[in-house]
Amino acid sequence: MLIQALTANAVDVGAIGDAPLVFAQGGGSPIKAIAGIQTDGTTTAVVVAKASSIQSVSDLKGKRIATLRSQTGHYLTLAALHAAGLKYDDVEFVFIPPAAAKLALQTGAVDAWATWGPYISSAKIVDGAREIVNGGKLMSGLSYVVATDNALRDKRENILTYLRSYRVAHQWMLKHPDSYATVWAEEVGLPLPVARDVIKGMVGEVVPLTDAVIAKQQLVSDFMSETRLVPRSLNAHAIIDSSFTF
């Protein structure tokens, strides 16, 4: 996974979600967030099989939910349970990777799947799964460009050049979503309708890490410590380098 690659200095820069950033901080990964990517949060969701009797978050009580531990789907599920007045142990989490989760949902081995991006879009468009909740009102919608401490020390000008190019490319994507979807689908092997659906949720801009952005991340961090996704309270400022302007 990307966090492990960053921690091992196998890569210098990458992009991760708000919950994985907290997980990385809690694990002592030597990385810093250097820019934010603000979306509407809807690309993270919980889906169920088309024929499932589950219609709402309340119906998840006593059910098995596939997701990745301490990732955005896990975070969303806990936030959704809290909002619905359910306890976190009212459901059984099954921590398995996306390929296994997809099969488990199709075979009925799990009742729901909490995941993100192309996995959600593919489940709905290709497999006919139904979405029962997404992160639009329950998550920050933030992802982050992150860099290793070593790269920030030794390759700062290169990273700044990358950030500026990344922002321009992101703006182009927002203005030309169909063209981007066509190229992206070919590059990663996605059906074109799936790629288009994912991009619909990628609205927003690449933004500097202002106090307002850091405050949003602190709320994510606080919730994750309260739900014991991380073992202690964390200060979001400690994993953020807000010195980059672009």
Automatic annotation (TrEMBL):
Major localisation: periplasm
Annotated keywords: Signal, Transport
Annotated ranges, domain SsuA/THI5-like: 3-178
InterPro entries cross-referenced by the UniProt entry: ABC_SsuA_sub-bd, SsuA/THI5
GO cellular component, one term: periplasmic space
GO molecular function, one term: ATPase-coupled transmembrane transporter activity
Keyword Signal set for record: yes
Coiled coil stretches, renumbered: none
Localization terms from the record: Periplasm
Entry keyword Kinase: no
Pfam family, one: NMT1
Domain of life: Bacteria
Stated role: Part of a binding-protein-dependent transport system for aliphatic sulfonates. Putative binding protein.
Family per similarity comment: Belongs to the bacterial solute-binding protein SsuA/TauA family.
Protein name per Swiss-Prot or TrEMBL: Putative aliphatic sulfonates-binding protein
Organism: Acetobacter nitrogenifigens DSM 23921 = NBRC 105050
